[in-house]
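Study this fold:
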Amino acid sequence: SFLLSLDPLTERKKPDVLIMSSTKSVAFTLFLVMVTSLPFNLNASSRPSNALHRGSYLSVERPSVDVLISENGTFKAGFYQVGENAFSFAIWYAETLNHPATVVWMANRDWPVNSRASRLSFQRTGDIALLDADGSVVWTTTNKDRAGAGEVAELWETGNLVLLNRERGVVWQSFDQPTDTLLPGQSLSGSLRLVSRAAEGNHSRGYYVAQFNEDSVLSFIYDGPYTSSIYWPNPDNNVFQNRRT
């Protein structure tokens, strides 16, 4: 596999069990009544899956439960803590015993949401939107051609988060909005760009950019607050001199 990341430089204790042999059936009946009496909630199932259906939502208050997991468990998508009381909606390589989670995409890298009441949910338009605690829209998918309203969002095993219509046509995908990482099978072309994170552990936008220029040459750019310049390939050479034809 191949991954390109533009970057400047994690014993369950058994619960106590009380057994009353003479009242097993009564206790079991009572348990069923209690469970079936619980209020129904439209948020994601307590058992994570790879799909979020229209009418459902993911809550920031349950980040370990309200999460999408790709079919084979390679990737997760959900609320990722980026600071005190601050979360971003992100996709990451799932953590393992030997490796921590590795973030590969963020929806709101520069505008974290609050740790209370924020959620990711479907809009009436069929887009999915990230809402802050006050209900304001921090980020939303953009379905420009409106090829049918989105009905379900799925996290694929490739790490691509896709919004599908009734015919399962793709109306939006995270692969079309990269942040600082290019995954296997993902293309960087046209006006798409990779923008570095600000620093190690800081996922906000940094100053280093990778994109194709008007001559379709891949360029690396320093785009700082006061100046912007290409540092690779040599900006003083033409396309032929840089052997980029």
User: Anything to note?
Assistant: Residues 41-176 form a domain with the Agglutinin, subunit A fold (CATH 2.90.10.10). The chain has two domains: 41-176, 178-245. The CA atoms of residues 29 and 35 lie 10 Å apart.
